[in-house]
Amino acid sequence: MFKHILIATDGSRLAEMAAGHGLELAKPLTAKVTVVTVTEPWSEPYGTISPPSWAQAYEKAVAENAASILASVSDIAERK
Fold first, then answer.
1. Which of 6, 12, 13, 55 is the most exposed place for a label (fewest CB within 10 A)?
2. Which residues, in sequence order, are CB contacts of 36 under 8 Å at separation 6+?
3. Which CATH superfamily is domain 4-79 in?
């Protein structure tokens, strides 16, 4: 029936519950699972120029947040 399930998550409690349900569905179907989270790209307000370090700090912070969100879903998958 289902061969590949896409699970989108924002790290919220409700999204974690939905991820758990998606993983439970995938297991008996032996379906492949892909988990994705999306972050806003760095954008500067019109007419301003910020130091490159701000953009780098932002990119680092969102990458760490995304890694944390995906690790949480990975932990859920290991328990299923």
1. 13
2. 6, 7, 8, 9
3. HUPs (3.40.50.620)
